[in-house]
């Protein structure tokens, strides 16, 4: 394997991981921002209040984007397996 092939594989793996994790992370960040704003406005400073809405938002985002996430993982895996004979 040439060094450029290893770099390409690593770059593709990182990009795929970033794309797969982004919907869930963005949903958690948005929910955390809204709950933090609500807590600041109402002066409720309980840590457990922020936890449940973030988890719910992340689960909803995961359930809505799961078909797309699986398709991206299958596409990456298929592409990787197909290119094995040409890279080694």
Helix content: over 70%
Rg computed from alpha carbons, rounded to a whole number of angstroms:
19 Å
The residue ranges in which pLDDT falls below 50 over 5 or more consecutive positions are none
Number of structural units classed as domains: 1
Q: In whole angstroms, how far apart are the ends? A: 5 Å
Topology, number of strands: 0
What is the subunit organization of this protein? single chain
> Which sequence of SSEs, written as H and E, runs from N to C?
HHH
**Shape summary:** elongated
Quote the average pLDDT.
Answer: 89
Outline the biggest β-sheet: none
What structural class do helix, strand and pairing data support? mainly alpha
How many helices? The count is 3
Strand content: under 5%
Written overview of the protein:
The radius of gyration is 19 Å and the shape is elongated. The termini are close together. By secondary structure, it is an all-alpha fold.
Spell out the key features of this protein:
mainly alpha; 88 residues
What would you say about this model in short?
This protein has 88 residues and is mainly alpha-helical. The protein has helices at 3-42, 47-82, 84-87.
Set down the secondary structure blueprint.
Elements: H1 3-42, H2 47-82, H3 84-87
């Amino acid at each position: 394997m040439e060094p450029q092939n290893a770099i390409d594989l690593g770059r593709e793996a990182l990009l795929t991981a970033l794309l797969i994790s982004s919907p869930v992370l963005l949903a958690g960040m948005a929910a955390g921002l809204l709950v933090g704003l609500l807590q600041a406005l109402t002066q409720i400073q309980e840590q457990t209040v922020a936890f449940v809405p973030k988890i719910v938002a992340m689960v909803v985002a995961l359930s809505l984007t799961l078909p797309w996430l699986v398709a991206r993982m299958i596409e990456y895996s298929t592409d990787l397996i197909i290119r094995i004979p040409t890279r080694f």
